[in-house]
Amino acid sequence: xxxxxxxxxxxxxxxxxxxxxxxxxxxxxxxxxxxxxxxxxxxxxxxxxxxxxxxxxxxxxxxxxxxxxxxxxxxxxxxxxxxxxxxxxxxxxxxxxxxxxxxxxxxxxxxxxxxxxxxxxxxxxxxxxxxxxxxxxxxxxxxxxxxxxxxxxxxxxxxxxxxxxxxxxxxxxxxxxxxxxxxxxxxxxxxxxxxxxxxxxxxxxxxxxxxxxxxxxxxxxxxxxxxxxxxxxxxxxxxxxxxxxxxxxxxxxxxxxxxxxxxxx
Length: 265
Known about the structure:
Layout: H1 2-24, E1 48-52, H2 58-61, H3 77-84, H4 88-93, H5 103-106, E2 112-119, E3 122-127, E4 129-130, E5 132-137, E6 154-160, E7 181-187, E8 192-193, E9 200-201, E10 206-216, E11 219-229, E12 238-247, E13 256-257
Parallel strand pairs: 4-13, 5-6
Antiparallel strand pairs: 1-2, 1-12, 2-3, 3-5, 6-7, 7-10, 8-9, 10-11, 11-12
């Protein structure tokens, strides 16, 4: 009887490990071993038009802060030095007017975003602030050695859901549409700014984002948590949170360029 019990326990372990592997690889439920395309496997639907809610950091988002205002950003000595020597005229002369609209600063601006699927493996995020486009690749990074850096960098996306089980039982794969998080990691960005007053992040920065959808009554909200790691200019992780409200359509969509003929100082 002891031998049979051992065999039974081993069988459960095998099932549990198998189910865990299936979960980790995003395989479809119901015994189908073929992974679903990321568009079909989406744990949440974040497509559509969203507008940012400016309920915090008003003085940095709605106005260009004065030079040297670095409050709340964990800059190291080199970061402070780069901020203090920021030169708007040099940015304009060098064609770098869009440095504040790079991926690590863009989503903190007062903006509308339009999220769509470019194809089964690629999510597209357009912003009306700066008329920028981000691409989230679920099939791996696209940057290759020698490729130029870009404002929006190279973004790799995955659907994630915390594993949940009760007792000693196999964990099942997450069910599309039943809740989870979009996890995005962006690298290979051109050096940019967190704010329009020249607070820098470097080409070595990594942007980590978590997108969650929340329903409150009949209104949908998008919660974005971001973490920036930059060994060149930060002495710690820079963590922020943004909120967006769902809009019924694109009636208020109004793209504007990231620069004008006469830049605002």
